[in-house]
Amino acid sequence: MRRALIALSTALALTSCGSGTPAQESTTLRIAANAISGGKNSESADWIKQYVIPEFQKSHPNVHVLFEPSGVDDEQYKTKIALDLKSKRGADVIDIDGIWVGEFAQAGYIKPLAEVGGPAVDSWEGWSQIPQAVQGLGIFDGKKYGMPQGTDGRVLFYNRTLFKKAGLPEPWQPKSWQEIIDAGTKLKAAGVPVPIQINAGTAMGEATTMQGVLPLLAGAGAEVYSGGKWTGASQAMKDVLGFYQQIYGGSGLGDPRLQQEAKGRDKSFAEFASGKIGILAESDYFWRSVIEPKAGVAPMQDRDTVVGYAKIPAKQPGAGIRGQDFVSMSGGAVRVLNPFSTNPKLAWDLLAFMHSAAATKSQLNGQARISSRTDVNNEVLGVDPMLKFVADQVLPITAYRPGLAVYPQVSTALQEATAEVVSGKSADQAAAAYQTKLEGLVGGAANVSG
To answer: Residue 8's pLDDT is what?
Structure first.
């Protein structure tokens, strides 16, 4: 009898969807994420199983939602998802890293949300709560392919005690690169061992690119990929490398050895926490996970009183991308719709539900973390002024890495360019070497600007 009732309900749902596919397919939706209870991204997996599925099914009683967990290396997960989409199968709603969006879009694995989900996508209430810059995490070639999940922002952290010792103002908000250099000079004169720490070199890996090169490039008015071309040895790139040269080229404002050590980034965390670094460029991860007083990697019991934070300035006021005075870079994951879903409109309903205010707040589970939604951030970040600062002032001006397959190799070339400056070469020499490497990576000079 129970089986007969289930069959009847799915048949009715099939009729209402107007689909000619088998009943079970028309009423079953699947979510895929690189998360698994008790393992990788366990909290996310638990949220999907314990909140998303039961709550969504309350309002969609004829829809059965399944979760397909994974708990593997990111590249393994990426390969699995790519193979699923290439063969026109896979889950209806899929978690992917924002850095994969462009690559998947160019391969035809994903399509713009509105093409898959229909008119309801553009009229969704949530778009008004997600800053345009944050929406950029899921945008490629001007079209929205993914819904941004939580994100982060890069800022300048500084030690208020050291600033007071150096006679520097507090709060501090530099308005140009020169003001950063000037502050470093005063910190050096006051005896601070490492006045400025801007990640450089290959040992720092992607942290060099995201915490250093790309924010600085944005501050010089350029992005690493724009208008279908990669930025080569342009004036903006030379300006960035020139700024590195000012810090690491014998001025004593930065520590070249720290950039070359295998665990240099971890050491920089420890040195900041112990009062040896005056200014450090990092993401809000540094605040909430590294120097967090109770459970941080390099905990600072006096973090809330000693550590200040400021927006990263453009080279000069108005010189940043989009004519901005201040800039940042962000990362994060997105959720996309499978263009081959047999129930695309229902899949959009599920995706929209997962990014509703109620669901977003539920996923935070009482923690102070930055979400993509302004309304949720306003509600949950009041207890943490630093994260609220990022949500309110940094996210609206942020930018993202290009989601293209060759980007990781370009990033390595950028890291190598900074390493050359740290080891003593001039900004022009490092820029020229980068140009040559870049052309080899992206198919020649025709694909490079500057």
So the answer is: 34
Buried b (16+ CB within 10 A) or exposed e, 363-390: bbeeeebbbbbbbbbeebbeebebbbbb
In whole angstroms, give the CA distance from residue 279 to residue 266: 15
pLDDT at 12 exceeding the cut of 70: no
- Terminal-residue alpha carbon distance, the chain: 72
Integer angstrom CA distances of residue 232 from 106, 352, 428: 22, 39, 12
What is the C-alpha to C-alpha distance for residues 203 and 205, in angstroms, rounded to an integer?
Answer: 5
CATH of region 26-144+331-397, choose from 3.40.250.10, 3.40.190.10, 3.40.50.1220, 3.40.50.720: 3.40.190.10
The answer to whether the CB of 211 falls within 8 A of the CB of 199 is yes
Q: Which residues are 29's β-sheet partners?
A: 65
Query: Looking up tokens 């995706």, which residue turns up?
Result: 351
- Read off the pLDDT of residues 355-369 as tens digits, 9 standing for 90 and up: 999 999 999 988 888
Q: What is the average per-residue pLDDT within 282-289? A: 95
pLDDT exceeds 80 at position 152: yes
Domains 26-144+331-397 and 154-328+404-449 share a fold: yes
- What does residue 230 show for φ and ψ, rounded to 5 degrees? -95, 140
Counting residues of the chain whose pLDDT is more than 90, the rounded percentage is 90
What gap in Å lies between CA 169 and CA 156, rounded to an integer?
15
Quick one: 154-328+404-449 is in which CATH superfamily?
A: Periplasmic binding protein-like II (3.40.190.10)
Query: In sequence order, what DSSP letters do the residues of 104-149 get, joined into one string?
Result: HHHTTS---HHHHH-TTTTT-GGGGGS-HHHHGGGEETTEE-EEEE
Of 337, 285, 21, the C-alpha closest to 155 is 285
Closest CA to 360 of 346, 347, 348, 378: 378
For the segment 191-242, what is each residue's pLDDT rounded down to a tens digit?
Answer: 999 999 999 999 999 999 999 999 999 999 999 999 899 999 999 999 999 9
Mean pLDDT of the chain, nearest integer:
93
Two tokens, residue 228: 């279908």
DSSP H or E run through 282: strand 277-283
